[in-house]
Amino acid sequence: MWRTLPRTLILSVLRAIPASPAWRTYHALCVTVFGLADSDLREQVQIVFVQSEKVCITQVAEAWRTLTGLFGYRLRAELDADFETLTSALSIAMHGRLVAELGAPDIAGRHITASPYGAPERERCTLSALSVAGVAMTFLEPDPEAEWGEQSLYRIHQAIDTWVG
After folding, report:
1. From the first residue on, what is the mean pLDDT of each consecutive set of 10 residues in the chain (165 residues)?
2. CA–CA–CA angle 116, 57, 158 (5° rounding)
3. CB-side neighbour CA atoms (13 Å) of 114
4. Where are the alpha helices (DSSP H) in 35-82?
5. Cα–chain-centroid distance for residue 61?
6. N or C end of the chain, less CB within 10 A?
């Protein structure tokens, strides 16, 4: 059961993010900047976006670092990547996902029934959610040295309480 928790968490986050007004506003601003005719103004605004994105990537990467260990996963050594790389790849995939859902909702929102990434049972998943989850699982693998027990669940609750509270 505990090995399926990251997959479940990823899919839950994928459902929540597009509903966020802040995420939609941020994405709309990114697209607006891309459309600016004045290249000097576009460059100035892009500098601010890059700085903002770096702060966000750093914060989200720390959350991935914590959750990955708590759920008994680790980064795949053969990728020679860190959590900032994982988070950057996920950010790119999320931007693409949102554009696809707005531009081609029948394709991005198409459901298939599958048991992805070690799911014990088949379930309905959208293609866009599977694509983003696939990016995460490209970077992650179960940690064979991870141990699961009462303390593990307690640490997960502590981490969530810290972020929420």
Report:
1. 58 68 79 85 88 89 87 92 95 83 82 81 84 89 85 79 69
2. 70
3. 13
4. 39-70
5. 10
6. C
